[in-house]
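Q: Please design a sequence for this.
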């Protein structure tokens, strides 16, 4: 039986920007090896697989090389597909059961808001080779979250012009590395980029789960709980971030760009 698969650009309101994710809605669970093979075939930063479970949907995320425990843009894309294709009523809350617990998504004034766990960073020293791989000499701060390293640099210009050594970054023991600064672009509080060669993605275009760390980090520094974020990858990504008690609200938009079938 052919299975529908939909490609969605997340954290953007226009095609061919933001972060692309494939979404595959299954009639029943499939084995992990098959899902990894499909994700490798899609060759996107994430492919999401979901099937109905416990008044919601079981959701799993795979890069081309590994399953991950938390992914924002593919969750946003999954919720978008559920509403757009009529699997959920337009005003229904999407409920997902994941490795990171219960996650939800709901529509709010043309945006999709995700309710995610906060993963604030703890201050730490840079591991061997990290700053050299990034080409950063004088970081303003370094932190370690549950999944990733965070490196604050002095300016948005530095963030935008980084050219990391991805081979060297692959040797850093973490899912990925986010580099961030206060924004100088009007309308935004902070900017970032996210590098994850350890997970098979040299640079992720727009990373929801990284903002579960970036949100709490900048909330403390800027003294505000509602933040506007820009991920300054070549494709770009726009997120609204609201820091709550142990949770983070991540809001973005999404656009369907491709529909097909797995035969």
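A: Design:
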């Amino acid at each position: 039986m052919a299975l529908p698969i939909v490609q969605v650009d997340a954290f953007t309101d226009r095609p061919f920007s933001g972060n692309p994710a494939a979404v595959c809605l299954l009639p029943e669970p499939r084995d992990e090896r098959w899902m990894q093979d499909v994700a490798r075939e899609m060759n996107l930063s994430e492919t999401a697989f979901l099937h109905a479970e416990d008044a919601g949907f079981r959701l799993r995320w795979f890069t081309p090389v590994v399953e991950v425990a938390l992914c924002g843009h593919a969750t946003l894309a999954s919720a978008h597909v559920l509403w757009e294709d009529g699997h959920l009523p337009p005003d229904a809350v999407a409920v997902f059961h994941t490795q990171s617990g219960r996650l939800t998504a709901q529509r709010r004034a043309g945006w999709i808001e995700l309710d995610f766990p906060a993963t604030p960073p703890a201050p730490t020293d840079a591991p061997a080779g990290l700053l050299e791989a990034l080409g950063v000499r004088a970081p303003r701060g370094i932190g370690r979250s549950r999944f990733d390293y965070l490196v604050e640099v002095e300016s948005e210009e530095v963030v935008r012009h980084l050219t990391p050594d991805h081979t060297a970054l692959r040797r850093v023991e973490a899912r990925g590395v986010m580099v961030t600064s206060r924004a100088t672009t009007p309308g935004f509080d902070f900017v970032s980029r996210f590098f994850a060669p350890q997970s098979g993605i040299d640079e992720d275009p727009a990373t929801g789960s990284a903002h579960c760390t970036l949100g709490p980090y900048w909330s403390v520094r800027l003294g505000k709980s509602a933040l506007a974020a820009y991920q300054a990858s070549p494709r770009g990504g726009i997120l609204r971030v609201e820091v709550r008690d142990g949770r983070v609200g991540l809001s973005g938009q999404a656009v369907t760009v491709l529909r097909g079938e797995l035969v």
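Q: Thanks. Anything notable?
A: The helical segments are 32-42, 73-84, 130-134, 156-161, 166-169, 211-222. The chain has a mean pLDDT of 97.
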